[in-house]
């Protein structure tokens, strides 16, 4: 049972890492589609980061009130919905709107799972946890590159969103 729990936590951290490098790999095409300067990526990044920080700060209260499992499941689905929103965004301001729930979901799951692993597992497992985050950040540029080559940047966000939904369902059912 312990091994299954660790596997689910590691999968959750892959899911946390997946969206983190999508914006950087897709922005050279995205900014042209929205007709905004390259520098506007900084605005999107600041909104995501600000919401991530805010969510991380209240994560303890959320996990105390609802449990690490509920916070994790809700955060994964929040991220999945946000990425789906990114994939359908027709203007720059829509990216900003969808950046808010994306950042909130990312911050909550990050702090909640880090805290859980720190309290219940060895330092070795904490290292593996962050290794799996790295797996997510490494995979997503390949997904975006494939999507841009085959279709458009929108497809890259949609593919990662579907992966997130799949992980969310897996977490919900276990």
Automatic annotation (TrEMBL):
Q: Indicate the principal place this protein occupies in or around the cell.
A: membrane
Q: Where is the Major facilitator superfamily (MFS) profile domain?
A: 5-174
Bilayer-spanning residue ranges:
40-58, 70-96, 102-119, 131-149, 155-173
Keyword annotations for this protein? Membrane, Transmembrane, Transmembrane helix, Transport
Determine if tRNA-binding is one of this entry's keywords.
no
Q: Looking at the record's lineage, which domain of life comes first?
A: Bacteria
Q: Name one Pfam family in it.
A: MFS_1
Q: Which GO terms describe its molecular function?
A: transmembrane transporter activity
Instruction: Indicate where this protein resides in the cell.
Output: Cell membrane
Any one GO CC term of this protein is: plasma membrane
Q: How does it sit in the membrane?
A: Multi-pass membrane protein
PANTHER family in alphabetical order: BYPASS OF STOP CODON PROTEIN 6
Which family does the record assign?
Belongs to the major facilitator superfamily.
> In its UniProt entry, what is this protein called?
MFS transporter
Task: Say which species the protein is native to.
Answer: Candidatus Faeciplasma gallinarum
């Amino acid at each position: 049972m312990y091994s299954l729990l660790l596997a689910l936590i590691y999968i959750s951290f892959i899911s946390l890492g997946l969206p983190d490098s999508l914006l950087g790999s897709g922005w050279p095409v995205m900014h042209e589609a929205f007709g905004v300067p390259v520098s506007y990526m900084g605005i999107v990044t600041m909104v995501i980061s600000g919401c991530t920080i805010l969510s991380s700060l209240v994560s303890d209260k959320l996990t105390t009130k609802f449990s690490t499992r509920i916070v994790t499941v809700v955060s994964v689905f929040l991220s999945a919905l946000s990425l789906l929103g990114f994939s359908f965004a027709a203007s720059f301001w829509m990216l900003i709107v969808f950046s808010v729930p994306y950042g909130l979901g990312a911050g909550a799951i990050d702090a909640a799972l880090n805290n859980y692993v720190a309290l219940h597992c060895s330092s070795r497992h904490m290292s593996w946890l962050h290794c799996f985050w790295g797996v997510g950040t490494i995979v997503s540029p390949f997904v975006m590159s494939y999507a841009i080559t085959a279709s458009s940047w929108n497809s890259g966000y949609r593919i990662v969103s579907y992966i997130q939904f799949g992980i969310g369902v897996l977490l919900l059912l276990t």
